[in-house]
TrEMBL record:
Stretch forming the signal peptide: none
DNA-binding region(s) in UniProt: 32-51
Keyword RNA-binding tagged: no
Highest taxon in the source lineage: Bacteria
PROSITE patterns assigned: HTH_TETR_2
Coiled coil: none
PANTHER family: HTH-TYPE TRANSCRIPTIONAL REGULATOR BETI (PTHR30055:SF234), HTH-TYPE TRANSCRIPTIONAL REGULATOR RUTR (PTHR30055)
Keywords of the record: DNA-binding, Transcription, Transcription regulation
Residues covered by the HTH tetR-type domain: 9-69
Pfam families per the UniProt record, alphabetical: TetR_N
Name by which UniProt lists this protein: TetR family transcriptional regulator
Length: 193
């Protein structure tokens, strides 16, 4: 069963990468699902079993927060520090340290060049953000409030953006988590935390 899940995930990622490349080269409206199927090496039927349309194929399947990590976070862990624990909760969503920089650069270029893709990314981000805000409030208590939780999540998003720039520009090719931690240290220093 695990092998079938891994195979499905690999195929999904491959299709999404091909869709992103086609989007980067031709724009979102510059290719068809048939051309995507051909570029991906899958049948049209298989393609539609994975994604209902080009927009979904380009964005791919987004990871979900791990239930065990959520439980630990809501219980006040793993470190007992809200920002550090938020880092631990969401960092797995951001990919692993072997992410290809060239693919990230291409993806960023393709996304920034298409307002429909940016809008769809924003919608997905809002969904994840709302979930994380709810987890923060559950952890910190209702007195902490959604407004404070939203500030914490917004800081996290800004740290991600700064870390992504650092990751893409790093000639030493250190992992993304290194750059995220550097951004977190900088934010703590600037905020006096």
């Amino acid at each position: 069963m695990k092998s079938a899940k891994r195979d499905r995930a690999a195929t999904s990622q491959h299709i999404s990468l091909c869709a992103m490349r086609l989007t980067d080269e031709h724009g979102l409206d510059g290719f068809t699902m048939d051309e995507l199927a051909e570029a991906s090496g899958v049948s049209r039927r298989t393609l539609f079993n994975y994604f209902p349309g080009k927009l979904d194929a380009v964005l791919g399947e987004w990871p979900a927060l791990d239930e065990d990590d959520i439980d630990e976070f809501r219980a006040g862990g793993p470190a007992g520090d809200l920002l550090l624990d938020l880092r631990t909760l969401v960092l797995p969503l951001l990919g692993d340290s072997t992410t290809d920089r060239d693919v990230l650069i291409m993806s960023r270029r393709a996304l920034r060049g298409n307002s429909r893709l940016m809008s769809a990314i924003h919608e997905r981000y809002e969904g994840i953000s709302t979930d994380v805000i709810d987890h923060v409030v559950a952890r910190e208590g209702s007195g902490f409030g959604k407004a404070n939780a939203k500030v914490a999540v917004t800081i996290l998003a800004a740290l991600f953006d700064a870390a992504l720039d650092g990751f893409l520009d790093d000639p030493r090719t250190r992992p993304f988590s290194h750059h995220f931690d550097e951004s977190l240290r900088t934010a703590r220093s600037l905020l006096g935390a």
